[in-house]
Amino acid sequence: MAELTEKAEWTDGIYQLETSDPVVGGPGGISNRQAQELAYRTRYLKDNLDATSAGLAQHEAAADPHTQYAPKLNPTFSGMPKAPTPASDSNSDQLATTAFVKSVVAALVDGSPAALDTLKELSVALGNDPHFATTITNSIAQKAPLNSPALSGIPTAPTAEQSVNTTQIATTAFVKSAINALVDGSPAALDTLKELSAALGNDANFAATVTNSLSGKMEKSQNGADIPDKTRFLENLGLGDLSKAGVATGLLATPGYAILPLMISGVRKNLIVQWGSLRMSSIVVNSFNRQKFTFPITFPTAIVALSNSISTGIAPALFTSSSIEAATQTGAEWIYSTAQEGLVPVVSYIAVGY
To answer: Whole-prediction pTM value?
Structure first.
């Protein structure tokens, strides 16, 4: 008896024997057709099962049978691996996505300015001091409080202008300047309040005291007109009638004059003294040379005396005469005669009147 031939072949459908089919055995016989097709399928399945078993054995024996997958232990991903984004408050061993990290970093930065939104920038801002808080605390301990500070050493501050009148701190320079402005060049004997107080007689009402004292004094501008009893005042001075005469006036020059006030028998009179000099304009010898002149001022009432003297510069050897004649309240005439040639006479005069 022979065996059916087997081959790995899969044909859809199994032949169904019909009642009309003859009974034919042997290779390709109709009676063996169903068994032959099933044998093919069986062989096909066995070959595939053997191949699968061998592949599984290799898979199980391989160190990394699934290269397209990452291992659970220490996986190394490639490409752009993705995972669900945890909630921003998540704090577990769940994978963190870039979105989760960005959200957490944004919450950490929380709108910080661009110059201070990284740890490096913050470190630089803190002077790279890992004990910044302690450093600042110790530094603050050396500072004075704003409220009632008790400073030590030699504290300094900006010096305000002298016009400032606020709560700004006053430095010693400001105080010195203010005191200098107050003293303003006062003499050393009066450059302190104590000295000024002593000078004022320690009188807190010095101004009122002086005002009250001045109220009993005469006004200078009144020139004595405000003296209640002028007669008694003059008597007390002991000047007699002379005090009523007045003040002398005049012109101290050449020509010149002096008006001298006098009291004569209780009547005020002015004694007037005038003087001058003049040169004879031309001389004719052995003749009367005449030259009229005017007094510096007019005598109001009369002229009472007139004298003269001449000067030629040399002693005349021949006859010479000089006189002043025809005197009036306004002037007179000089008459000069000589027998000597070459003289240039100058006459000086004094006239007295009232």
So the answer is: 0.35
> Is residue 26 a contact partner of residue 33, using CB atoms and an 8 Å limit?
no
Residue 30, burial from CB neighbour count under 10 angstroms (0-12, 13-18, 19+): middle
20 by DSSP, 3-state: which?
coil
Q: What is the pLDDT of residues 152-188, one digit of tens each?
A: 889 999 999 999 999 999 999 999 888 888 888 889 8
Query: CA angle 308-313-315, nearest 5°?
Result: 90
CATH of domain 249-353: 2.60.40.3940
State the residue for tokens 């169903």.
34
**Residue in the block written with tokens 């000067």:** 311
Tokens (6 digits) for 142: 């050396």
Is the N-terminal amide bond of 255 cis, ω within 30° of 0? yes
Terminal CA-CA length for the chain: 207
Determine phi and psi for 37, rounding to 5 degrees.
-65, -40
Helix (H, G, I), strand (E, B) or coil at 239: coil
**Helix%, strand%, coil% for the chain, nearest 5:** 30, 20, 50
One DSSP character per residue, 328-346 reads: -SSEEEEEEEESSTT---E
SS3 category, 245: helix
Can you tell me whether residue 277 is helix, strand or coil?
Answer: strand
